[in-house]
Amino acid sequence: MLNTDRLTVRPFAPEMAEALSRLSVEADNRRFLPDEVWETPEAAARVIDLFMDEYQYDRGPLVYAVTLPDGTYIGHVEAAVTSDGCWEAGVHIGADYGGRGYGAEALGVFLPWICDRLALDEILGICVEENIASWKTLEKCGFQLEFRGEGRYQGFLRPIRRYVWRPASQIDIDVFWQDFVRREGLHPRTPYKEAFCFDESDAGERLLGLVLDGRKTATCSSMEYWKWLEETPPEPGDFSIITDRAGCPRCVIETMEVHPAALNAVPWELARLEGEDECLESWRQKHNAWFAEEARRLRYDFREDQEVILEVFEVVWKG
């Protein structure tokens, strides 16, 4: 068994069949992982028997339950072989337990263990582009984006993201974070909200440069985005790690202020803190285009007066 402060990753047991079936038929699971839907406890029980049989082998799929300290089943993590012979990791947490970081926590403890067991130098993470919660979890665990575009997923060609995780990637982030925690005299278990890069393109690297130069001290996100992730928006006092597109940690930021506003009512004194535009009109044109595209991906109706969050931050550590 693998333990964190909040979770246990453990082998499946027959008594988990009803919970596995119940979580597998949730809407998002049907939508994104239709081959992992088991309509009845009897069907789930048969699958659990297969999971348990596979534990003695290293051929996969290797699927393990995620439980709370009281034994409540809340999801699973897995490693399976893809059609081209590579190993892929995945995690599913039930909707009732979403938005609490359980997926990243379970996957974070599972990855080093499974890579050590299978003697893997790397493991993939693959998800459809529109499943933002999934790829944000992968990124939080230190996966690096390898490919973005059309690819085969669940038997169909769809826009996908393919990530790769190598043990050193998360180690680098954890070491970086602990260096900061020690320097600041914080409790060793102080969490960070997320580790992220702005974008895998040259534009993302340019934004990182603006942050490191002190010219970008704010960023903007939509409330719809946070609802989709089932997470709370940033709050003053939150810490996050910004990485470059290779996944290397570059700085720690602290959220200093949070300003909710309608997109078309964001004042220039806040917009200019993003450091990307010379006037409010330019800022609005770029952000309207950005959020319109986000709305298409997340399937919500874009409005110029939709609520956004202006997050003002400060770089507090560059390593």
The CATH C-level class name of the largest domain: Alpha Beta
Total number of strands: 13
Strand content: 25-35%
- What CATH calls the topology of the largest domain is Aminopeptidase
What is the CATH-assigned architecture of the largest domain?
Answer: 3-Layer(aba) Sandwich
Task: Tell me the CATH superfamily of the largest domain.
Answer: Gcn5-related N-acetyltransferase (GNAT)
Cα separation of the termini: 34 Å
Characterization of the model:
This protein has helices at residues 17-24, 27-32, 41-54, 102-118, 132-140, 167-184, 202-212, 223-229, 268-271, 280-298, and strands spanning 2-3, 8-11, 62-67, 73-81, 87-93, 123-128, 144-153, 156-165, 195-196, 218-222, 239-243, 249-262, 307-317. 35% of the residues lie in helices and 29% in strands. The longest helix is centred in the C-terminal third of the chain and has 19 residues, at 280-298. The chain has 319 residues and is α+β, with helices and mostly antiparallel strands. It is built from 10 helices and 13 strands. The chain folds into 2 domains: 2-165, 3-Layer(aba) Sandwich (Aminopeptidase), CATH 3.40.630.30; 169-317, Sulfate adenylyltransferase (Roll), CATH 3.10.400. A hairpin with a 5-residue loop joins strand 3 and strand 4. Strands 1-2-3-4-5 form a 5-stranded antiparallel beta sheet, sandwiched between helices. Strands 9-11-12-13-10 form a 5-stranded mixed beta sheet, sandwiched between helices.
